[in-house]
Queue: 2 jobs
Job 1
Amino acid sequence: MTKPKLIIADEPVSALDVSIQAQVLNLMKDIQKEFQLTYIFIAHDLGVVRHISDRVGVMYLGRLIELADSEQLYQNPSHPYTKALLSAVPIPDPDLKKETILIDGEIPSPANPPSGCAFHTRCSQVMDICKTTRPQEHDLNGHFVACHLYNK
């Protein structure tokens, strides 16, 4: 326990003031560098995730739907859910405008997820296959996405 290789941090800064968040995140990065640690960093704040993470996995109803290097994911999200999430991240410059993608519908019960793609009940790009068949993971040059939009 004194020299862990992996630390799982579930919402480690979510209840903290922004200035304290920054201090904790910087400390975590320093500790990671000094001790060659790997973090599994679980968070809902995508700005925090971008700051701390080298690779990002996006989950929906307990299923991994997208996985990529942090910058690749933030610059070029592939799954419709990831695109919607990132469109909702506030931009600190009030002069810059961006389109916010709204997600319609109710979140399905995680205890009884829909068949096929778990996101299909809320997806604006839903196809018939999405309703019946769970999507396979597609490799887009090291950027993985589980979505029927990428079927060949």
Note: The first strand starts at residue 6 and ends at 10.
Job 2
Amino acid sequence: MIDKKHVMRTMDWSKYTIDGWLEQFGAWCETVRMKGGDLPDGLHINQIYWLMREAGKEVHKSKSYIRCEINDFEADHVQALLRSLLNSDKTDFTTKFALICLIKNKVENKGLGKVAQETNQSKAQAAIMVSCARFYLAGHDKRLTL
């Protein structure tokens, strides 16, 4: 009999593209927040919203609603990857800035215009930064795809 506690779990990075993983991580963060978790950005929970969703009541959904389809294990790996890059002395300032733009766009689900406004750059420049960060991630970690 196999002891499930001692089975080594591996991360299947081929399940999503870079954008997909980041969007799923953002959806996971929202799900945890709605359940009452405390996430890095410190936003507080919306208990009424979560209770209505669990009760099956219709809740107004925005056009950009993303359903969370990853588990805690996968979310932990995505978070660890992002944290390692942002905290690394080997990642230069410009790369970190590009990664922050990508995180704002995909994890926080903000449009390029909002990313540009929050990072004090043009929308075109924000789009370039997001694109550069995608390519950086693909080059940095060969398990990730564009």
Note: The longest helix spans residues 18-35.
